[in-house]
Amino acid sequence: MITSIQWLPVIINCSLVLGLFRLLVIQKPILSNYWELITRSSLLSYLIVVIYLTFRPVASWHTSALLFHRVTINLIPFNALTSDFFLNILMTVPLGCYLYLIKRTSLLNMLLIGLGTGLLIETTQFIYDLLFNIGRSVDVNDIITNMLGVIVGYSVITILNKTVVTNIIKRFSLTQYSYI
């Protein structure tokens, strides 16, 4: 049975994201254009959805050889490929796209940002599961798939930016106006 205390991680993370959004976006006196507002607002919406998907409490169902204080941990990559494997890639593709719109960088930096994203989500899930028993498992596959999703998203926008849609991408880009 899921209790109200198990929803605290979602509330905490959403509050942090909303606070950062207020600090970095709403405090700006004037947005450069409406495209920038769309990019920033959709980024905020995306982050809230990711928080919901990754930190909402679930009934614990994972089986693993490793259990640490009721937290299930899988340290064996590609042990069991389920639909979650591919859904995790899909979940972080938009992040790669947003990162391209915010700041162009090298593939190595994208690898590191993708790895950091996966590590941040899994470490935070682990801590929240210890504190609030949210029923999440820590899985090395999630770290790998989060990294792959960021790389795919960044690569797709990089390729699209070399086609006829380059002007559309420039409109949504935050790099020519300001940064988040």
TrEMBL record:
Domain of life: Bacteria
Pfam families registered for this protein in UniProt: VanZ
The name this protein goes by in its record: VanZ family protein
Domain named VanZ-like: residues: 44-160
Keywords: Membrane, Transmembrane, Transmembrane helix
Positions of transmembrane segments: 6-25, 37-55, 75-101, 108-128, 143-161
